[in-house]
Amino acid sequence: MRPSGRNLNEMRAVSIETDVTKHAEGSCMIRIGDTHVLCTASIEDRVPPFIKGSGLGWVTAEYGMLPRSTSSRMRREATSGKQGGRTVEIQRLIGRSLRAGVDRVAMGERQITVDCDVIQADGGTRCASITGGWVALKLAVAKLMKAGDIVSDPLVSPVAAVSCGIYAGQPVLDLDYPEDSEAGVDGNFIMRGDGQLIEVQMSAEGAVFSRDQMSALLDLAEHGVRDLVDAQLKATG
Q1: Class of CATH domain 12-234
Q2: Is 18 annotated as ligand-binding?
Q3: How far is residue 140's CA from residue 145's CA, in Å, rounded to a whole number?
Q4: Taking the mean position of all CA atoms in its chain, how far away is CA 168?
Q5: Per the record's keyword annotation, is GTP-binding included, yes or no (predicted)?
Q6: Chain centroid to CA 222: how far?
Q7: Angle at 51 between CA 46 and CA 53, to 5 degrees
Q8: For the chain, is the Cβ count within 10 Å smaller at the N or the C terminus?
Q9: Do the beta carbons of residue 188 and residue 224 sit within 8 Å?
């Protein structure tokens, strides 16, 4: 029995509210169970120096957790003068995941920055950030197309992510914090809407896993990503 009472292949409740901020070209609040993330997308008519003049666009991301997004207050990273290693790793993951669904030639020489701010954390914040980040990106791109700044949609496929793991000896979908903290094996699966894998992060702690178990987790992830893509398309429809 899972702590939440969910079935092994059952996602937490998913909701995506769009246009939640006034100034960003694209924005949404994604809620996956008790994990809530504010995602905004900002368009800039510039690109990093290493691709300037190439005609290619760029998508990047920043990620952060508010001080009381967790059960006890965390210190703001800005007060220490630098980002932690976990933060840097997650925002790089978000950026490269979103770029995997973008035709950077069609995007033109501009940059879209996706900011993901965790309001409340209960497991799976990086997965929620990727899933919500794509929605914010989609809304920003729609504004570029409406204005005639680009002529074809550079988003070739939705991008979504979900966690899976081995909890109490069983493969389970979409770990919340009680499961994530106790799982012997956990992984994050980032996929495009067409079923192509972008990245898989899996590790064992206090246990090992077999190829059959990994396949079972991948099957669960495909199921979960399909549900998330449905929610993304409904939100941006």
Answers
A1: alpha beta
A2: no
A3: 9
A4: 26
A5: no
A6: 15
A7: 75
A8: C
A9: no
At residue 206, the pLDDT reads 77
**CA 140, CA 186: separation in Å to the nearest integer?**
33
Known binding residue 131? Answer is: no
Say if residues 125 and 33 touch (Cβ distance below 8 Å): no
The residue whose two tokens read 């996956």 is 32
- DSSP-derived letter for residue 102 is B
Amino acid at position 122, single letter: D
For residues 54 and 107, the answer to whether their CB atoms sit within 8 Å is no
Query: Is 124 marked as a binding-site residue?
Result: yes
CB 201 within 8 A of CB 124: no
| pLDDT on residue 205 | 85
Q: Are 12 and 5 in contact (CB under 8 A)?
A: no
* Alpha-carbon span 169 to 235, nearest angstrom: 35
pLDDT at position 166: 95
Q: Compute the C-alpha angle 134/98/76, nearest 5°.
A: 80
Task: Find out whether 104 is annotated in a ligand binding site.
Answer: no
Domain borders along the chain are 12-234
Q: Say what the pLDDT of residue 136 is.
A: 98
143-167 as b/e: b if 16+ CB within 10 A = ebeeeeebeeebbebbbbbbbbbbb
Residues of the chain where predicted confidence (pLDDT) is lower than 50:
none
SS3 189: strand
